[in-house]
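Slide 14.
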Amino acid sequence: MIAATFSGSKGGTGKTTLAAFLSLLSSTVVPTLLVDASADGGATSYLVGEVTGPYLSESPSESLRGVNVKNLKLTVSVNRGPISNVDEVVKFVKSLGHKIKIVDLPALTDMDAVGRYIPLIEAADVIIVVTEPNPASVSAALYTFGDKRVIIALNQPRPYYRTVVEYYRRVIDNFSKKTGCQYVIVPYDSAVARLSPQTLERVIDLTSEEFDASLVRLLELLTVGKS
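Slide 15: predicted structure.
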């Protein structure tokens, strides 16, 4: 299964952080691949740190690095720099045997970026749309992708008032009823911002039960697809 994260043209939604934590959770159960497709290498920084190439943008087959923490079965395709060889990346991702493959796409801020990354979106079985409870983020993220399954993660990378979160939950609920997509609410958790290769083990143990439950729910929707 290939899942691609998407945040429309709006960055800062916590998409990469959520992709990293979801990959960590998934890798406790099955072999998981996290493909860092963003030019700034956010997922690489969170899970591997400063690493020399080759990167995904240079040589996909030589970009794999293991995350050696506890009993995790997690591999990261590390990256720095924009990806021009998208078709090659798609073939590479499809060729690997990991049970779950999560592709962290960058925020698609212009039509050139959209066109460049379409092959990765088309290759995905599921699109995880990550948005946060504010008008700019929600309006940039609520899309359908043909017949692909869509899961919306209403994420809170910073504290929001409950009334604000509830308002946008209703907006997403209405969208979901019209389109058939599914959604999950991800609460704010201050421990999430501390994720790094040096703090990884500690941060996993520090996240709240509410945050952990939302990730479990997201993984269930991803793998089972039942509401």
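Speaker note: The mean pLDDT is 93.
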